[in-house]
């Protein structure tokens, strides 16, 4: 890749217990990304971690809607919303970062999804597409021109973050072997197609050098 890492940030997306094997919304092989991410962290001058941080009655939870099944969809004020099993509830063990993830080098932790009425996939915006997390301003002030993205899940929070980065004028690269997908009803293929069309780059971790 041609982008220089001295003007780049690594965004580590939602490597939390509930998204890893045994968690409430486990991504297959979700914990396999951890050693890859730990190897990448020292290569970047700016390191951002995101953390899903939901209230127990979040509207994206199937339990918050009588008779609703997990992975069904409803319409909320901002559009279609997948109803997930309750996960990453604020202060719970499921919301904690996986113990093997090296969080010591985090420059900033962005918590998202803490507003009951709005889900949040992207590191940059809530799902209403207008409520910012504050990350864009932080990266601007740090002089970041490109983001490299790792974590969970490729087809949701990673993809939304990459697409938002491009919309904000940043270069964006998804580190493929440092991500895993949910792949709900073809969501992985759809996300990859959209990212490629919008100019998101893809790389393997062994090609990332400082």
Count of helical stretches? 4
Counted beta strands:
8
The first-to-last residue Cα distance is: 11 Å
What's the name of the CATH homologous superfamily? Isochorismatase-like
Radius of gyration, whole Å: 16 Å
Structural class determined from secondary elements: alpha/beta
The proportion of residues forming helix, as a percent range, comes to 10-25%
**Main sheet overview:** 6 strands, parallel
Strand content: 15-25%
Low-confidence stretches: none
Main sheet: which strands, in order across?
5-2-1-6-7-8
- Output the CATH topology: Rossmann fold
- Inertia-based shape: globular
**Name given to the CATH architecture:** 3-Layer(aba) Sandwich
Average pLDDT metric = 96
Structure explained in plain terms:
The chain has 210 residues and is an alpha/beta fold. It has a single domain, classed as 3-Layer(aba) Sandwich (Rossmann fold). Helices cover 19% and strands 22% of the residues. It has a six-stranded parallel sheet. A two-stranded antiparallel sheet has the order 3-4. It starts with 7 loop residues before the first strand and ends in a 7-residue tail after the last strand.
């Amino acid at each position: 890749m041609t982008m220089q890492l001295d003007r780049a940030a690594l965004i580590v997306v939602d490597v939390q217990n509930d998204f890893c094997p045994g968690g409430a919304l486990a991504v297959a092989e979700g914990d396999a990304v951890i050693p890859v991410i730990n190897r990448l962290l020292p290569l970047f001058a700016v390191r951002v971690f995101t953390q899903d941080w939901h209230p127990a009655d979040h509207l994206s939870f199937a339990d918050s809607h009588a008779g609703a099944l997990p992975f069904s969809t409803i319409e909320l004020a901002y559009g279609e919303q997948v109803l997930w099993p309750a996960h990453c509830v604020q202060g719970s063990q499921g919301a904690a970062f996986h113990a093997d993830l090296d969080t010591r080098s985090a420059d900033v932790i962005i918590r998202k999804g803490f507003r009951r009425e709005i889900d949040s996939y992207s590191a940059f915006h809530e799902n209403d597409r207008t409520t910012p997390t504050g990350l864009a301003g932080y990266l601007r002030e740090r002089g970041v021109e490109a983001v490299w993205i790792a974590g969970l899940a490729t087809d949701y929070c990673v993809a939304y973050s990459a697409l938002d980065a491009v919309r904000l004028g940043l270069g964006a690269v998804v580190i493929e072997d440092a991500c895993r997908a949910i792949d709900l009803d073809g969501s992985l293929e759809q996300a990859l197609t959209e990212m490629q069309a919008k100019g998101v780059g893809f790389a393997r971790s062994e090609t990332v050098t400082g």
